[in-house]
């Protein structure tokens, strides 16, 4: 059964009111992630925006057990939690490692890759706001071509993002998925599915950042949706190698109504200095990636 | 894998085996019934990890063995496993310990009873895989208890005691021993029975664990000043938490002594003192060193005694917490203290020497303190060289030179 607004659990594990920015999509995503795990979880978090959400000692906004771990160590921390629980005979809990794109694409990739190669039994979620937003918006391995950031202040970033989800898929994981904070029920269902699978499960969550991307706080959901409608972000899952488009991306694929990526770009101040050539480059990249997904999606009728 | 000859000791539930230092460390971890082992291979520590994985694979150690992809991850695994309540062990050397640096702080700050075996090795650049103590000395200020073993028996005994100490005071313990000189040198080691170790070291019962039934959030951002919680209770700020770590290290001296004494009562080898003494009763010249170097110093003391000098040795076993007042008592009769360091705090002197001087300050002792840097990067240290260094110090004393600004080096420059 698909989850909808009516049958979604009302239990909250992220309490109302936290220290994240107004309009932050990370709160929304995290809320649904923890709902899907029904609180039966131990979370490990590196330095990131989520550290801010978790609060300042001695007050926290979450009701699940959590460890904060140094930036580079998220994957290893998850391994340690699992190893410790196993040694003590506890098999009823899910271990969730959740980190930003900096903590996943950049400084945390080694520990994550090591844990994934060992097929350690935990869910890893990368919430991707395409930059080091917690430290004030510096460039990360996920910052897109042309985007202005604290460390690409004038020219914009000169390189493309890396495809972290593809990198994780190449580890041969039993479950890899993408999600988007504007589609929280799709995210919820994917976390539910991941919870029931053994081994390392990886979910990439696209989380628009109003101050970093420079769009109004009120537009978070719309920007996330525009990313889906233009193919900038694509919702899919790969379960034991079987690829499937999901939710709004499946719908766009069926209808064949992908919109130009320009519509997503022009809404954000970070892209204000893009050249026509860069917009074309970004469109070509989106087209190529979209086509690869269409080619892999065997269930489209 | 080597399986050495077994000599039975009839009157105790122990057996003497011929073991190198790395096997002694692994045996110590096994006897301590560690539950999670995470380690990354590095010379000269690798046999520790190989031996432990062998114990686990052959079913002789009921533990999770995690073959991590780096030392940083090794200690991160131990940290999180310890937080959920498992007894954890790791081992490393040199660059591996340096790579763990961030996690060393994190473990101590989290107040976790992790035990780490550091097989002392020089640190690059340039590359060097041989022994000195620069690696662990460089981690002096990370909030760990540091114990230096002088022989393979002490390695095994110290690992077992380390858990009892760490789990009592919630401070991690680093058991250090010299690469190759101990790690790859075989000597007889009395291995206590599992039954006796179990009697000495009960299973780890953490005061706090992570459980959804009682959620806790470890290591949240903590401000400098105390803050009130949701119930209006004022809770510690960052600075109070740092104070408590220092207080725990200060107070751990009593625990280390008590655990060492208890160990002695059960196994016949007492570790009630933070340092060992050789002929200090009548000595007016004291050689100070740590680890296997202090054993070499006893041979130098023999030579000096033969030449009519009243020389003794103080072998520093516990470097953190530093046993200040006990050291002052032990050194109060000496007129010359010669400190040999297998490390250097660049721009000043050997770390042990600085610590000894700071301990003596204000104690009324007016011994001359000399410092020699020796044995870096595996440079052989001969007892004769140590004895000569002492004699050189004596003759310069006679010429009226009391203290040198910088240490002397026993090398070719």
* Class inferred from helices and paired strands of chain A: alpha/beta
**Fourth-level CATH superfamily of the largest domain in chain B:** Thiamin diphosphate (ThDP)-binding fold, Pyr/PP domains
Q: In the CATH scheme, what's the topology name of chain A?
A: Rossmann fold
Distance between the termini of chain B: 42 Å
Succession of helices and strands of chain A: HEHEHEHHEHEHEHHEEHHH
Q: Averaged pLDDT of chain A, please?
A: 96
Reading off the top of the CATH hierarchy, the class of chain A is best stated as: Alpha Beta
Fraction of residues in β-strands of chain A: 5-15%
**Helix/strand structural class of chain B:** alpha/beta
Count every helix of chain B, treating DSSP H or I runs of 4 or more residues as helices.
13
SS summary, helix count of chain A: 12
Write a structural description:
The complex is a heterodimer of chains A (301) and B (413). Chain A is α/β, with parallel strands linked by helices and 301 residues long. Helices cover 38% and strands 14% of the residues of chain A. Chain A has one domain: Thiamin diphosphate (ThDP)-binding fold, Pyr/PP domains (Rossmann fold). In chain A, strands 2-1-3-4-6-5-7-8 form an eight-stranded mixed β-sheet, sandwiched between helices. The mean pLDDT of chain A is 96. Chain B is of the alpha/beta class and 413 residues long. Chain B has two domains: 195 residues, Thiamin diphosphate (ThDP)-binding fold, Pyr/PP domains (Rossmann fold, 3-Layer(aba) Sandwich), CATH 3.40.50; 135 residues, 3-Layer(aba) Sandwich (Rossmann fold). Chain B is globular and about 70 Å long. Classes of the chains: A alpha/beta (301), B alpha/beta (413). At the A-B interface, strand 1, helix 2, strand 2, helix 3 and helix 5 of A face strand 4, helix 3, helix 5, strand 10 and strand 11 of B.
């Amino acid at each position: 059964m698909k989850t909808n607004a009516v049958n979604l659990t009302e239990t909250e594990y992220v309490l109302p009111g936290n220290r994240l920015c107004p309009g932050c999509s990370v709160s929304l995503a995290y809320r649904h992630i923890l709902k899907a795990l029904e609180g039966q979880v131990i979370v490990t978090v590196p330095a990131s925006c989520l550290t801010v959400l978790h609060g300042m000692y001695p007050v926290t906004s979450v009701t699940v057990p959590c460890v904060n771990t140094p930036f580079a160590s998220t994957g290893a921390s998850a391994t340690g939690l699992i190893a410790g629980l196993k040694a003590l005979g506890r098999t009823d809990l899910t271990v969730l490692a959740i980190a930003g794109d900096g903590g996943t694409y950049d400084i945390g990739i080694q520990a994550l890759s090591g844990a994934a190669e060992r097929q350690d039994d935990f869910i890893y979620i990368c919430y991707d706001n395409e930059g080091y937003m917690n430290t004030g918006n510096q460039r990360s391995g996920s910052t897109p071509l042309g985007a202005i950031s604290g460390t690409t202040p004038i020219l914009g970033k000169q390189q493309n993002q890396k495809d972290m989800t593809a990198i994780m898929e190449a580890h041969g994981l039993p479950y890899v998925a993408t999600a988007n904070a504007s589609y929280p029920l799709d995210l919820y269902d994917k976390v539910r599915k991941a919870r029931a699978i053994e081994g390392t499960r990886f979910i990439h969550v696209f989380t628009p950042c109003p101050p970093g991307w420079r769009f109004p706080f009120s537009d978070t959901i719309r920007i996330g949706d525009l990313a889906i409608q233009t193919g900038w972000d694509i919702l899919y899952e790969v379960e034991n190698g079987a690829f499937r488009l999901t939710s709004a991306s499946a719908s766009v694929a069926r209808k064949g109504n992908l919109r130009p990526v320009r519509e997503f770009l022009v809404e954000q101040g970070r892209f204000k200095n893009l050249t026509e050539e860069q917009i074309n480059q970004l469109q070509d990249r989106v087209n190529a990636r979209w086509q690869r997904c269409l080619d892999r999606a065997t269930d489209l009728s | 894998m080597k399986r050495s000859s077994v000599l039975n000791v009839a009157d105790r539930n122990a057996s003497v085996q011929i073991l190198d230092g790395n096997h002694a460390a692994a045996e110590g971890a096994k006897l301590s019934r560690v539950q999670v082992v995470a380690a990354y291979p590095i010379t000269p520590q690798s046999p520790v990890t190989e031996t432990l994985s062998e114990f686990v694979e052959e079913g002789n150690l009921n533990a999770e063995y995690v073959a991590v992809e780096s030392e940083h991850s090794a200690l991160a695994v131990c940290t999180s496993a310890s937080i959920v309540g498992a007894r954890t062990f790791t081992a490393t050397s040199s660059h591996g310990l340096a790579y763990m640096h961030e996690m060393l702080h994190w473990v101590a700050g989290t107040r976790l009873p992790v035990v780490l075996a550091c097989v002392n090795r020089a640190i690059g650049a340039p590359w060097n895989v041989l022994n000195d103590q620069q690696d662990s000395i460089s981690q002096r200020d990370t909030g760990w208890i540091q114990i230096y073993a002088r022989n393979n028996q002490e390695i095994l005994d110290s690992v077992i005691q380390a858990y009892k100490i760490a789990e009592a005071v919630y401070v991690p313990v680093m058991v250090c021993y010299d690469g190759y000189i101990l790690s790859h040198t075989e000597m007889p080691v009395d291995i206590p029975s599992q039954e006796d170790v179990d009697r000495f070291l009960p299973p780890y019962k953490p005061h706090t664990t992570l459980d959804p039934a009682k959620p806790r959030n470890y290591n949240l951002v903590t401000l400098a000043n105390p803050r009130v919680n949701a119930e209006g209770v004022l809770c510690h700020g960052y600075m109070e938490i740092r104070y408590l770590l220092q207080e725990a290290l200060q107070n751990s001296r009593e625990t280390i002594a008590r655990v060492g004494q208890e160990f002695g009562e059960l196994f016949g080898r007492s570790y009630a003192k933070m340092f060992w003494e050789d002929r200090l009763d009548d000595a007016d010249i004291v050689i100070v060193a740590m680890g296997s170097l202090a054993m070499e110093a006893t041979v130098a003391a023999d030579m000096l005694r033969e030449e009519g000098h009243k020389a003794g040795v103080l072998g520093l076993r516990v470097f953190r917490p530093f046993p200040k007042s006990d050291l002052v008592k032990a050194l109060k009769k000496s007129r010359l203290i010669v400190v040999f360091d297998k490390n250097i705090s660049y721009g000043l002197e050997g770390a042990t020497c600085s610590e000894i001087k700071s301990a003596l300050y204000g104690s009324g002792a007016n011994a001359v303190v000399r410092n020699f840097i020796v044995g870096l990067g595996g440079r052989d240290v001969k007892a004769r060289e140590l004895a000569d260094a002492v004699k050189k110090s004596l003759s310069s004393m006679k010429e009226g030179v009391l203290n040198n600004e910088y240490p002397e080096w026993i090398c070719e420059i």
